[in-house]
Design brief:
Elements (H helix, E strand, L loop, with lengths): L1 E3 L3 E6 L2 E7 L2 E3 L2 E4 L1 E4 L8 H15 L3 E4 L2 H8 L8 E4 L3
Parallel strand pairs: 5-7, 7-8
Antiparallel strand pairs: 1-2, 2-3, 3-6, 4-5
């Protein structure tokens, strides 16, 4: 189950948090997607992708902009042009 909150999205299975994405507020209209984690037992199964999709849908519905400093978020956003207009800055590689 994916649980989306104001500053964190978690993937919960059997009452254990097995994945998370952190996106603290930068200002009233912007968050920084700063960290993505998926338990090693679930890697390669699309969990991070599903969580990131949930994060972007949630933030888009709240008219939030994003700054991506997490390497996974940067790569994910490059593959999803439908959300690229939400980005306000890119982290230098």
């Amino acid at each position: 189950m994916i649980e989306v909150n104001e500053n964190k999205t978690t993937y919960i299975k059997e009452n254990q948090i097995l994945g998370e994405i952190d996106y603290p507020k930068v200002d009233e209209n912007t968050v920084n997607i700063s960290h993505t984690y998926v338990d090693p037992s679930l890697r390669g199964q699309g969990v991070a992708d599903k969580m990131m999709e949930s994060v972007f849908k949630y933030l888009n519905n709240k008219n939030q902009k994003v700054i991506c400093t997490c390497s996974y978020a940067i790569k994910w956003l490059e593959k999803h042009p439908e959300y690229q207009d939400m980005e306000v800055a890119k982290k230098e590689k």
